[in-house]
Amino acid sequence: MKLPTLLALALGHLVVASPTKRNQVDGAAPKIDDPNFISRVMDAHWYWRRIHCAQDLTWDPALAQAAFDSVNACTEHPQHDRGGSNLSSMGPAPGHYDEWLRAAREMVQGWHEEELKYPYDNPTWDTAWGHFTQVVWRNTSHLGCAMAHCGDVEFPARLYCFYESPGNVLSDGMTEFKANVWPMVCKDPDQKRPH
Ligand SMILES: *[C@@H]1O[C@H](CO)[C@@H](O)[C@H](O)[C@H]1NC(C)=O
Ligand SMILES: *[C@@H]1O[C@H](CO)[C@@H](O)[C@H](O)[C@H]1NC(C)=O
């Protein structure tokens, strides 16, 4: 188990060393069909969504593929390609597989931490809490995420998540935010996920 991981990382470093390329570094970030990766990301969403009275999400491989295509473009500055997406990046990149998995969970936790700033009495959108409101958006039912290890950039480790239906709907004034972002009034999740 250990050896292939080390080989993959060594290969990754070779790719990084080429300064003209800003491509995905092979073999470092978890793949979109990696069950460990999927469960880290799903668990982190599931936990908070339960507490905020939102429905459980279904993993959507097509959304994950779309997120993969986007995040693997490895633009110099991370950019959002669509509404209903959350993106985080960090640098330097994690050193090995387990750290990538931990980073995925911590990034989603970080999105939820914006909850502290959310004005429940004046619910609307703001960059200060846009990740949080998407994470717990009640009408969202599907999720797909991807990680990338981008080479020659300041924040090379990236997690990008796509949501359906997209959250942060502003079309109807405050109505959508009020209906979709509930405070932490529901019961804490049990230890076990329901599947
Ligand atoms: C997180 O996702 C939401 C939903 O699409 C988006 O509106 C928001 O811009 C994202 N947050 C940030 C800070 O980029
Ligand atoms: C809520 O979700 C449903 C089904 O995913 C979707 O058809 C509908 O457009 C969503 N409503 C809003 C206001 O986003």
From TrEMBL:
Query: Does the record's keyword annotation contain DNA-binding?
Result: no
Signal peptide (from-to): 1-17
Q: Which UniProt keywords apply?
A: Signal
Pfam families for the chain: CAP
- Could you tell me the superkingdom of the organism this chain comes from? Eukaryota
Q: Note the Gene3D superfamilies from the entry.
A: CAP
PROSITE patterns the UniProt entry points to: CRISP_1
Residues covered by the SCP domain: 36-171
Q: What is this protein called?
A: PR-1-like protein
Supply the source organism for this entry.
Lophiostoma macrostomum CBS 122681
